Here is the input.
Amino acid sequence: MLRRALRNIYGKNFHPMTDIEINLFNEICDRINEAARKGLDESGTVDPDDDFRTAILRNNEVFVAFKVHRMQNDMARLLLDSNGNLKPFEQWQKEVMPVDTHVFRVSERIGLTTRSKTPLQTELTLEKNIPGHLLPLAHHWLILHGRYVCMARSPKCGECGIAAWCRKYAADHRTKG
Here is the structure.
């Protein structure tokens, strides 16, 4: 979904601060409407009238428009240069620190972030503390570290090369005195 939105932003005369990316809007709206329909169907209420269902779905569209606009403003912070112009894609790709589940979990666990509640908070913290030219390498390193060493359910702390600096390892191996 985001990949398609980025292609649209870079492929057309599109400004992420003022325009709504239609693919992003449609995808999110479909998911929210699907959940609303499922909730109404499973609620056990006797067939709510069509006006009520229509009002729920219309309100969802308004919510989604605000949600997509907010997402795009967050994206614009990364996509636009200081003059408000769209950065070349290659420049954006070098500057951004995408956060997936491994990066989010591992960054918190080893101590690169502290109490980040969202991937965006994690991303902002990592971008602030890791030099820009190292972000792509750090991104891949954190993914691989999370996939093969610092796994969610059974981390291999005994085999980890950074255990001496790891917040989780330190907490798990504190001497009780």
